[in-house]
Amino acid sequence: MIAAGDSGLALARELIAAAPPEARLALADTPRDAPLRPSTILCTGSNYREHNAEKANTPLSAKEPEFFVKTADCVVGPDEPIIHDPRLTSKLDCETELAVVIGKPGRHIPVESALDHVFGYTVVNDVTARDRQVRTSPEGVTWYELGRGKAFDTSAPLGPWIVTRDDIPDPQALALGTRINGETRQAGNTASMIWTCAELIHFFSTNFTLKPGIVIITGTPAGTAWSADPELGGRWRPVPGCVKPSRYCLPGDVVESEIDGIGVLRNRIEAGPT
Fold it and tell me: Contact 237/54 with Cβ under 8 angstroms?
């Protein structure tokens, strides 16, 4: 469907228009899975100025995109649980991020034409084990372990659906945020990205031929629980309308990741094996 591009979308619209009333289901009554389980999720961190200001940074933070990978094994859909595994982490954190779904293949894609390769956009929660991610040397130099800290079961809730590119003409003008148990923890705008969606497409296409269905996630704004954790170098700063985190995520918490023009991705934290 994604690889078919405009012709696939045109056919889908014809089928929808021709569907009889009895074939239609109310969205609220329809179970939803993740709209896509990409084999590859190309990820960048430290891509919002406000987030960089609130956390321990490495020598390369904000100088070049942080590059790490998640896989289909990390993906869960709307209303599926995020597993809190105490054997993996005691500092489970959440990050709402705009996700770019590639629709047209390309390698070494110029920034100027990069958005032509986009099929659409969705929401990803970049769930992170902070105590696996943040490392500090005896000399006080910080670095990130972006393998174990970022890629694990249920660490990439994705959804609730993909909004096609024509409905989001400017991906750099979207408000996004996170609520945990109804409290607003993150509130930002994609205009604050250091590297735009187009620049990230160009960046990742230097390493990979970007293929239909590959997803690029683009970083998160301020307000993570990490910001309120001085043990890991957090430096929380007030954000209008946001509540300072008092702790990391625990079983029973409900996380809502929202991006204007796309919707709300909702997941509950559940206890894993002890």
Answer: yes
